[in-house]
Fold this protein.
Amino acid sequence: MEIIGIEPTTSCIGALGFMKPYAERKLQGQFMTSGLLAHEYLPILQMIFTVIIISVSWILALLAIATANMRYIFMFFWLLLSLALWLVIAAIFNFIFDIELGKAIKNVIYDVNIGGYSITYKDAIDETVGKRLSMLGYLCWLIPVLAFGLAKGSEMAFANMFSSVGHAFSGAAGAASGAASDRSAPGGHSLF
């Protein structure tokens, strides 16, 4: 992708050479940690939400009868629908992850022109798969938000989802530029 209007000058080439790998490592570490936590805690959270929603169903039924308002019944069905969509979206994500990992591995294999898998290029394949898995693991946290957004038809849920993804990238970029600035402090090596 070409960004128009941003051209590095010779004075900032060193800084860019430092910041991009730094930001990638920071982002990959954040994604990897988030993916590991998602793997452990998302099933527990789904179980807790299921128990809570089923447990309060009789309270919602009583509120609907007492207030003669069907809003509580509809809320219960929206919550049940979001729980059902959670599993469907997780299956769709799993399918997308399988396709993405397959393409990534194929690209690495044919980029190094080996025509097939070789133990010699294991590190390149591991790095590519690690990057993809960490990003995809991070995206697993979006499953509950996406499920509720689809069940409720809420644009706010989708805005929240896109905002959280953008926040991760801007956080890593900010940390990298901060690290480059710190290196130009007294006693450090100036990158600018």
The radius of gyration is 23 Å. The chain has a mean pLDDT of 76.
